[in-house]
Write a structure and sequence with these properties.
- It comes from Opitutus terrae (strain DSM 11246 / JCM 15787 / PB90-1).
- GO terms for molecular function: phosphatase activity.
- A 6-stranded mixed sheet has the order 3-2-4-1-5-6, with helices on both faces.
- The chain is of the alpha/beta class.
- It starts with a strand and ends in a 12-residue tail after the last helix.
- It has a single domain, classed as Phosphoglycerate mutase-like (Rossmann fold, 3-Layer(aba) Sandwich).
- α1 packs across α2 and α4 crosses α5.
- β5 and β6 form a beta hairpin.
Length: about 200
């Protein structure tokens, strides 16, 4: 029996220094991307949607859920890796170090090993809860990259940096193993829609 997972990275967000990260909304471009995801996701046979509790993940999948009459369930294990207890202005340096040393963590933050174990456990739980179904799992770039590292240990920082906003990645589970379907493509329309995550607006005071 094969369970199919479509891992959906959220659309472009709008970081605000004065706002807790879980509350960050989508940017205007991200809102348009969320709407544009509907025709990309609709043909995939998705029967259930789970997302991170962070607002930007839920808002990314609301247009698709509404169009297809599906409910969105929140799973805490799909949340983003916690970088630190406060805003970190030099995230790119933290990103680099986190891939060089999976045990590296700032005060109040998670190391890569911890986040990888958490999201892998969350996905395992959902796969065993819904065997043979097709699920959309809304999460974040860092967390999804670490899950793909769990699936394929050769997955590294260059692969992680190629995950766009939004992104749709296909993973299947059968015979107790996960398989990342690298040949999956969401279509030409989606290729126009997705943007490099580095284009996310900077701090908006």
């Amino acid at each position: 029996m094969t369970t199919t997972l479509y891992l959906v990275r959220h659309a472009q967000s709008l970081p605000l220094m004065h706002q807790p990260e879980p509350d960050w909304a989508l940017s205007p471009a991200g809102e348009a991307q969320a709407t544009g995801l509907v025709p990309a996701l609709a043909p995939l046979g998705i029967t259930r949607i789970y997302t991170s509790p962070y607002r930007r993940c839920r808002d990314t999948l609301v247009p698709f859920a509404d169009a297809c009459g599906l409910e969105i369930a929140v799973h805490e294990g799909l949340r983003e890796r916690r970088i630190a207890g406060q805003w970190v202005p030099d995230f790119r340096e933290v990103w680099r170090r986190s891939w060089e040393d999976f045990s590296f963590a700032l005060d109040g933050g998670e190391c890569s090993w911890t986040c990888r174990a958490r999201i892998a456990a969350a996905v395992d739980e959902l796969v065993h809860r819904h065997p043979g179904e097709t699920l959309a799992l809304g999460s974040h770039g860092n967390a999804l990259a670490l899950f793909l590292h769990f699936v394929e240990p050769a997955f590294g920082v260059h692969d992680a940096s190629a995950i766009r906003t939004p992104e749709i990645l296909k993973v299947t589970h059968s015979d107790g193993r996960y398989h990342w379907r690298r040949d999956f493509h969401a279509g030409a329309g989606f290729e126009v829609l997705a943007t490099d995550f580095r284009l996310t607006p900077g701090i908006v005071a």
